[in-house]
Amino acid sequence: MTGGAMKLRIIIVEDETLIRKGIRKKTENLGAEVVFDTDSGYRLFEYIKENGQECFDVLLVDICMPVMNGLDVIAGVKKLKNNVRVVVLSGYSNFDYARQAIRLGVSEYLLKPIEQDALRSVIQRLEADVRKNYMDRMNRAADNLAFHIMGRGDTSLEEDTVKLIRDIFPSGFFVRMYLKGNWRGRYKCFEEEKDGKFCFVYADRPNLLVSLIQEIPADDTAGAGDEANGRMGTHTVFYSGKITDPEAIADCVKRGKRVLKESLILDENIVIFESERQSEGELKKWDEYFGNRYLLLGESLKEGEAEKIRHHIKRILTYHHVPQTILEKAYLKIIWKICEERGNMQNFPDEEWLQEYDTKEEFIDAAMEAALQLLDAGEEKGGFQENGRISLDQVIDYIEKNYDQDITLVGTAERFYINRSHLARIFKAKTGTTFNNYLTEVRIKNACRLLKEGLTSTETAEQVGYDNSRYFCRVFCKVMGCTPAGYKGGEGYEDDKRLEI
Q1: Topology classification of domain 9-134
Q2: pTM of the predicted model, to two decimals?
Q3: Among residues 122, 280, 415, 436, which one has the fewest Cβ atoms lying within 10 Å of its Cβ?
Q4: Sign (positive or negative) of CA dihedral 222, 227, 230, 236
């Protein structure tokens, strides 16, 4: 089960040929795969030596055989693969045999002649057990790989993680990184992780899915159908070159994050292959266009021509086919120019909030709104809101009382009837951190308290606003440098000072 389809893989050791063939036929009729059958324990060990310990899940073995009996075979196989499931086949209803087999860790004991129903029942139980064990291993390995990639706490790849990766991808693999929406987008398409081996949501990026894949598809259809379903369809996908060493995954993901951030274009679907150089033609056109438009903007600012100023800003922000980071840098240059012209440099904004808008229309509206606010010298006079009814303390109090809910910067701004870009800017200026980082810190601070009180990781995740407990564990590890289980055991208590907010 560890390498491909979830199908029970069985080896049969029975010295009587007709009985062995009959058992094989019955086993295969029940949907299991007989990878090898033999009449000798010695041939069994030769097969395992040649094909590896992970080539089978279950051993069906006769007790009474010449040269090497079944108990000796079981003992030898258990030394090689302790977690193997063993079914003893015997024509002797002898309690002593059963007792010795139990001591060796035998899973089941079947008497010959074997009934089809009895064999079916045994195979079903073993299949469920092996499947659960395999998924538990996969989940632990996926978590270990995620923590390794984040680079916090104990970041080394465990031996079993490396073993599983190499077993699943014997000839190598590719890293696929799928970003939905903007870099810090609110689009929670991966709240529940997708099925698949080594496929997980990146901590603090609920819209970024990282997975290891066997091969790159001929036609990437990620996000296809989103528009038909009335959902935002922007996605940016990064495919690495082929990797054979699991230790190289972390560096690959770092490169991929940089490429995704530098390449995404809102409302356009982009697929990037690490092995290909990206075209720079559009960027050259953009540089020339922006240079000319920026000069015109500067002249209009000096002349105080409000309509022309708005026109130039809008034309710059609506330029197509350049990466979002380019437009964000252009926006910051525009704001710098406005602040410089108005002699109001202390209001220069933080840019992170720009990365939260998942569509081009949202981004343009928010950026235009912020720019026009600065153009109106009398609109903001240093207060959080002109009439003084709303203070930043009220917003912080709202976060700290409702951190277990689905809180966002945009939703909070709408709740308090505040301009969202203004809220982001003032929040960063007053607290020294962004709105989202503050929310995460509040959630993790309360998670630490709940873990100390004895709640499980799953219970804690639910109570601090995370629907996905595994995603919560990764965010917790990134902030605290240890897993929730490790913190609960005491290894992270000394790091509570990180959350003094």
Answers
A1: Rossmann fold (3.40.50)
A2: 0.74
A3: 280
A4: positive
